[in-house]
Design goal:
- About 60% of the residues lie in helices and about 10% in strands.
- With about 130 residues, the protein is mainly α.
- It has a two-stranded antiparallel ribbon with strand order 1-2.
- α1 (about 10-25) crosses α3 (about 45-55) and α2 packs across α3 (about 45-55).
- It starts with 10 loop residues before the first helix and ends with a helix.
Length: about 130
Amino acid sequence: MADAKDERRPAGELEASVMAALWAAGAPQTPGQVQHSLGTDLARTTVTTILTRLHDKGLVDRHRQGRGFAYVPVQDAQGLTAKRMHTELDRDADRETVLARFVAQLSPDDERVLRHLLEADEQSGG
């Protein structure tokens, strides 16, 4: 018989699953609704704990609904990815080298997209 610890998923994986469920819902969700949409054997209390952690991190907002809360993402998946990229960039004092290495590792298609975005930003005065 497998040890219960072996079946536990990393917190980051659970948080990502909960965020995906919230984005897919497109409307505020209670922990019970999130639990149902995940279709897993997670306890509602576990889902509530994950939602509370996401709220504490500023990734979801919550509003009173009955005796509990309904949760909604603060930003879409792409906005969250961009925020994470900024967080990683802020961790290193040598931003120029980090950015240079990031750009050097871009695919030609990604480089074209980035160049287009930077040129559009310059034209709009940003």
